[in-house]
Amino acid sequence: MFDVRLAMLIAALGLVVPAGASLQFAVSPTHLEEGVQDPGSTFYGDFRVLSSEKVEIDIRTERGSLRDFNRFKSSKSGSFSAQSCAECVEMLRGEGAIEEQDQELSAAGSEFVRWKDVKFLVNIPGDMEPGYHVLLITPDPDIEGSGSLSLLSTSSFPVIFRVPGEVTRSGKIIGLRPGSTRLADEKLVASFYNNGTATMEVETRFKIEGENSTEDIGRDEKVVPPGETRKFSTSVPAGREEFKARVAADYGTGEVSETADISLKESVRAVERRDREEKGMPISTVILLFLLAVMSFVVWKVVQDG
Q1: Is the pLDDT of residue 46 over 90?
Q2: Is residue 143 part of a domain?
C-alpha cells in the first residue's frame, strides 16, 4: 500500500520538518476517509510514521472536533456529530520503536531509513449517532535522550466516517439566571438544551449590555448530547448587582441567544429565605421557647398547688 510515490506525496505536502532539526518526525497520509459505516460494523485502517532517528512511540486516540472535520469536509459540517468513538479503536500494530528498514524513503530533501506502518481496527458501536464522525489517532514519540524533536503543527491522524441517517443540529437556551449565593462570588448560569439528533460542541459567551456599550465577562464550553441539557456559567465582575445580561451559544453550525434582567440582590435574598426554610428555627429560638414552656409550667403548677 505504501511505496516511494507516497514519500513524494509527503514531500509535496510539506509534512516533514526542516532538515536542520535534530529529529524529524512525520505522519502520512494527512487523513483517512472510510465512507459509510453502519452501526455495529468494523473497518480497518493504516498510516505510516517516519522518523530520522530511532524513537519509541505510544499511540493515543481521542474524539475529533468540528474544527478537525472542517479541515477536510467543511461543506458537510451540517451533518457532523461530535459523539466520541475514541474508545472504539483497537491498535493492531504500530506502538514501540521505529526501526531501520531496508527501503529508504526520500522526502523534503531528507532520507528516511526508519519508518513503520500503524494498523488499527475500529468497531462502530450499535448506538452510534447518524452523521459524520472524526476520531484522532496520535503517535506520541518518546524523545528523552533523542535531542530536540520538531513536530508538525498537526501530528494527529484523523479518521473520518459516516453513519447513515438524518442529522439535525439544533439547540436552544432555556434559562439565564444568577447561580450563586453571595455577591462576592456571584455567577451567571445559562442552560442549553440540545433538541437535535447529533452531539454538539457548544461555546457560550456571556455579556453585560449597557445603554452605549457591551462588556464581555466570560466564556464556557461543553459537549452536549442530543436530548440533554448542560449548564454553562461565568463569574460576574465585582460591584455589579443589577444589569441586563446576554448569553450567546455557538454550536458550530448555528447560534442562539437569550437576554435577561438580572438582580443579584433579589437572588441572594431568595437563597437566604430558602436556606432559612430548609434549616428551620435557629437553636437560640428553640432554647428560648423551651425555657418559656418550663416557666409556664412552673407558674401553672404553683397556681394549682395554691
Answers
A1: yes
A2: yes
